[in-house]
Automatic annotation (TrEMBL):
Listed InterPro entries: Dabb (IPR013097), Dimeric_a/b-barrel (IPR011008), TAT_signal (IPR006311)
Stored SUPFAM superfamilies: Dimeric alpha+beta barrel
Keyword tRNA-binding: no
A Pfam family assignment: Dabb
Protein name: Dabb family protein
SMART domains in alphabetical order: Dabb (SM00886)
Signal peptide per UniProt: 1-29
UniProt entry tagged with the keyword Signal: yes
Domain Stress-response A/B barrel: 37-132
PROSITE patterns per UniProt: S_R_A_B_BARREL (PS51502), TAT (PS51318)
Originating organism: Danxiaibacter flavus
Keywords for this protein: Signal
UniProt lineage: Bacteria, Pseudomonadati, Bacteroidota, Chitinophagia, Chitinophagales
């Protein structure tokens, strides 16, 4: 086996790191985008100033993320942006990506999802859901 120079080692390591980072993005791009189903849920807590209630909801969402049909998820809070078109009144958002509508339908009746609603619904006063599919 030949000895690698420091320059070659750094160069090859950089290529391996770049490939590792690009692989998830390429896999998502390779998926047929026309079937992707996005499910975005906004929660308004009964006690929006309660750090404990936010923590409980986030922990519940993290458990909920173990549903097998979820491809990707993101738990967020309102960004510090202020324009007339931005609604920052919600407490926590939950964005999910499914491979298709059938996987999202399965998620709705999954015991993990039903248990989340049972355990956490007392925390929120309002929930709004935006579902979207490809327009092209």
């Amino acid at each position: 086996m030949s000895k690698l120079s420091r320059r070659n080692f750094v160069s090859k390591s950089s290529l391996v790191a770049a490939a590792a980072l690009a692989t998830p993005a390429m896999a998502l791009a390779a998926q047929d985008d026309k079937d992707i189903f996005i499910h975005h849920v906004y929660f308004w807590l009964k006690n929006p100033e309660s750090a404990e209630d936010k923590k409980k909801l986030i922990e519940g969402l993290q458990k909920l993320s173990t549903v097998k049909t979820i491809q990707k998820f993101y738990i967020g809070k309102p960004a510090d942006t202020n324009r007339d078109v931005i609604d920052r009144s919600y407490s926590i958002s939950w964005m999910l990506m499914f491979k298709n509508k059938a996987d999202q339908d399965s998620y709705q009746v999954d015991p993990i999802h039903l248990n989340f609603v049972k355990e956490c619904s007392s925390l929120w006063q309002k929930v709004i859901v935006y579902d979207s599919v490809s327009a092209v």
